[in-house]
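Re: duplicated header lines in exported C-alpha cells

Our pipeline writes sequence and C-alpha cells for each protein into one text file. With two proteins the header for the second block appears twice in some exports. Here is an export where it did not happen, for reference. First protein block:
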Amino acid sequence: MSNTYAPPSTDVALKAQDLQVYYGSSLAVRDVHLDIPRNEIVAFIGPSGCGKSTVLRCFNRMNDLITSCRVEGKITFHGEDIYADHIDAVELRRKVGMVFQKPNPFPKSIYENIAWGARINGFRGDMDELVETSLRKAAVWDEVKDKLKQSGLSLSGGQQQRLCIARAIAVQPDVILMDEPCSALDPISTIKIEETMKQLKEDYTIIIVTHNMQQASRVSDRTAFYNAEPTDKGGKVGYLVEFDRTETIFNHPREQFTRDYVSGRFG
C-alpha cells in the first residue's frame, strides 16, 4: 500500500515525517508523511477510526494530554521540531489553535470569550479593536455586536462555533486546526463556517477533519485520504493513503482505495 503525496510548491507551515502514534503498546496510526502549505485549507478525510483526528491533534500536541499516547517520527512547524524538549506546548497551542467538533464557548460574555485568551497571553493593545476584528474575521460580528455583554452560551450552535473560531483567532495563531467543526450544525450554519474558512485562509493555514466529502471538495485546496487496516489483535491501524490537490483526489486519484472511497463504495 503506497503512501503517496504531492509536495507543495509553496512555503510549508507544518511537516510530518514518518509519523506514528501509539496508545499504550498499540499502534494507532502509521507512516504519515505530510507537507501542509501556508495559507491553504487542507482536509483530512477517511472512514471512522482511520486516525484523522489523532494526526490532527499531533500538530499542536493535544495528544500530550492522553497519558497512554506516544508520538514517534518528526513534526516541524516552520522548520522547528515541535516535540523537541525545549518547546513549550502551551505556546505552541497559541500558534496552532484548535476548534473542536462541538462548540465550546466559555461560560462568559461574548466579549470575554474573545478577550480572555488574548489577555492571559499578554495582549497589551486595544482590546475592543481586537474583539471586533476577531469577530469580524469569524463572520459573526454583525450578529453579536449589540449583545457583547450576553453569555456566549446564549448564541445558536452555528454562532457559538464562529465565536470559538474568533476566540482562536484572537490569540493570533498561524495555523487553525478544525476537528469536524460543522458536524453538530445545521446546513445554513455549515455554509457560513465554510465561507468563513475560505476568507480566513488569506491569513491562516487551516487543517480540517471532516466526514463530509462534499465539504472537503468545496473548501479545501488539498486533501489527505486516510484508511485503516485490521490488526492481528482485532484492532485497526490508520494510515495515509494519498495526499494531493483536492481536485486530483476527487477526480483523478492514484490509489484504488481513494477511488473507492470518494465514489462511495465504502466508508
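Second protein block, exported in the same file:
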Amino acid sequence: MTRILVINPNTTQAMTDEIAAAARAVARPGTEIDCVSPAAGPRSIEGHADEAIAAYHALQTVAETRGRYDAYVIACFGDPGLYACREVADVPVVGIAEAAMHMACLVAHRWSIVTVLPRVEPFLAEAVHRAGLTAKCASIRCTPLTVLEIEADLERTKRLIVEHARRAIDEDGAEAILLGCAGLGPIDKAMEAELGVPVLDGTACAVTLAESLCAYGLSTSRAKAFMRPEPKELVACPAPLIAAYLRREEEERA
C-alpha cells in the first residue's frame, strides 16, 4: 500500500474536503490518501505573506508526520514550502503547480494558467520560472475571484474560469489550461468537455506523479539543492522541526 499525505496549506476545512475528494478520485487501488490542513495559518493564500505563513506550517506538518507516509503533496498552486519540505522529508514531495506544469508539457506545446485574483500573478510567474518552464507558459489569466469565493457559487466560478480560459486559447495560443488554485479541481472535466483542450487540476496531477515516483522507487536527491538542513540550534521551534535539523548530523555519524 502507498500512503500519501495531501496538505492543504490553508485552514479552510471545506476546501480541504474538496481537495481530498479530488485526490481520492484519481488514486490507484492500493493508495491511501490522507488530507489535512494546518491548525494555524491563513484561511486562504492570496499573497506573499499568506504564502510565507502557510509554508512554515506545511513544513511543520511534514516534520511532525515523518515516517508515516510514502509521499507528500502540497495542495496550493503557489507550492508554498515545497523546497523546504523536500529538505526535511524522507520521501518524495510534489507540489500541485509544478506537477500540473510538467504534466501539461506532455500533452500540449504551450499552456496557460487560469487563476484567482490578479495579485497572485507575480508569484505564479515565479513558480513557472522556478520550474524552468517559462517558455512553455503562454499566459497567466486572472479572474476577479477570491479563493474563498470559488465554492460559494461554483456555477459563477466555472463561468468566469471558462471565459478567461477561452481568451487564453484564442488570444494567447494556449493548448491546455491549468487550474491555478486547488479549489478549482471540481470543474476540470466539465471545462475540458466545454473547451476541447486538456484541463489539468494540480491535485490530480500531483497525486498521480507521487504514485509514479513511489512505484519507480525514486525520491529526492541529496546531492546539493535539497540536502538536509545544516545542523544548528532552532530557538523556540516545535520539537519535530528541531529533530529534522539534527537528522543530517545523526546520519553522518551513522
